[in-house]
Amino acid sequence: MAYTEDRAFELVQAAYERQRLGHAFLITGEALAGGERLASRMIEMINGVDDPTAGLDLFGDAPPPEPQTIDELEGELVRVVRPEMKSRRISVSQMRGLEKAMYQASEADKWKVGVVLEADRMGVEAENAFLKTLEEPPANCLLLLITSNPDRLLPTILSRCVQLPLITNAKREAYDGEEDLLEVLAKLGKAGFGSVGRSLTLKAAFSRVLDRRKAAISKANEAAQKEEVLQYKQTTEGDWLKQRENYYKALTESEYLLERSQLLDVLITWLGDVVRQKCDVEALDYPQQAKITKLVAEHESLESLLGRMEALEGLASLLETNVSEQLALEVGFMKSFG
């Protein structure tokens, strides 16, 4: 699934706040999708930003400041690698220089950040020189690879990064499972919420979509792991292969939790449209559902709708704990739609 820049940042920010931020991200998509801007926002998120206008907004009505550019952020804490001017390639020496910079000491509570622009211009030798840093990064190190051509990168690079494919707001498309949930919401919305049976019907649809996505994630990661085993089992130690097995297990779990969060966002966003209809706001996230959300808005009080949204947000928070997933979903859906 591809994300808008804002949505991708929200997901990254949530992971950071839970102290579960990955150490390497591959940001892909066309230039207009905002890959460099997202990288800048991530750097400012972890290291803070000195804003000369801070404190001047006395009435709280000024827009948030624009993030600094990658060029402006480059310095002691942020090392940026770009293709060399003549060859338009990223050399092995550049990547080794980046690796050295990541291991240099930095201020307390500050992150060292390595940004690789047009990462597909590395080439095999430079990518292999970068693998060690990806596999064993130093503490408080964040690596951001940005490219519009991720298919040119080695599978070993791809498998070691959290991938954030970006799209522009104009190109937002429904992802797998979203339309299924919207269809069930439309059917139940016509009948009206407030029924235990309907809330459990929606929960069952949610679980079916989630199970399907989990199976797809597991299949893809199992295939990637098998490819690595075939490629490296003759040249690496067994401990490394075991580490890669654990890596793919963790990756599968992480991607599954992200899918679950996205599906919950569909429900929250849909209810947000209902609230907008209730308040006569024209801009909707799901305009194709406008008739249904308008109908629901006519039969629900604003207090009730806000309560349903609050229950869903509570469910999302609860699922971040060690609670039983199925029990939390059942109770959460009954509170939200029952």
From TrEMBL:
InterPro entries on file: DNA_Rep/Repair_Clamp_Loader, P-loop_NTPase
Gene3D superfamilies in the cross-refs: P-loop containing nucleotide triphosphate hydrolases
Pfam families given in the database record: DNA_pol3_delta2
Name by which UniProt lists this protein: DNA-directed DNA polymerase
Origin organism lineage: Bacteria, Pseudomonadati, Verrucomicrobiota, Verrucomicrobiia, Verrucomicrobiales
